[in-house]
Amino acid sequence: TVGLSKAGEVIPQVTRLVTPGTGDLIRMPKDCPSCGTHLVQEEEAAAVRCPNKDCVAVAKARLCHAVSKVALDFDGVGEVLIEALVDKAGVRRVSDLLKLDPAHLLRCGVAQSADTIIRWLGLITQPAARKLPHPASVLYALSIPHIGNKASNALIAAHGSVKKLLSADESEILGTPDLLPIPARSWLAVRDAPWLQSEIRAFELAGFNMDMQPATPTSNKLADKRIVITGDLSHERGHFEVLIRQNGGKLTGSVSKKTNYLIVGSNPGHNKIRDANKHGVPQIDEAQFWALLA
User: Fold this and answer.
1) Each residue's pLDDT tens digit, 90-131
2) What's the CA gap between 73 and 76, in Å, rounded?
3) Coil, helix or strand for 49?
4) In DSSP terms, which residues pair with 16 in a beta bridge?
């Protein structure tokens, strides 16, 4: 039995051992049970990882993450299809999804009928055709260590495009607003890797939007207003970021005494609510936000 406390907004933290267990100690494997590659453990981290990017288990997890709603949002593409593509068609990287050949998939036995394969490919190519509205989704989909949704949005919001992130000075990356040092250093460590460069080129060739579109000003109703969002709203966060910028405001990632509004959706984060109460920041719901723009 262990004691838990809330750490951050979602993930609990183990703080103490309450009652020792009676079973055998869990021994961490030294090699990946899927591909046999020696596992690595990052400094000051508890988790061990398989560093083999061609590992079948790693590929499946990476692809399932990439097609999820908060990443590329390939609606209808789930674990069953991902497993078939990895096991039978040799798909390993996210970019492989963008160049699937129906004839090859049929020969590999991914599905028994061409109609099924065409339907599946439609689920994958449709998002590419509409061009993702926010390049942070592409960055997040690449499964870069420590680059989560919040870090992806912070990087793109500050630097404007994925290409600029590849060439920005180290000091510029480390000084990115709302970006913690660990994800900043993680991006600097990986951005020159051949696999990442290849993935980014593949997304560009597929027509994905890799640059944040400049917000065309529509009003100054939020001029000089710093706004934070917590919880789930009716649209993705990138949609609200564009609206806020178009009306003269700025979306930030944390609440401070300089924050003007905290927009509170469903399942809000405890820390942001606490900080808003501490600093006396007005808390509004989505309907009140729309009223500010009316």
Assistant:
1) 999 988 888 888 888 888 888 767 777 777 777 666 554 454
2) 9
3) strand
4) 3
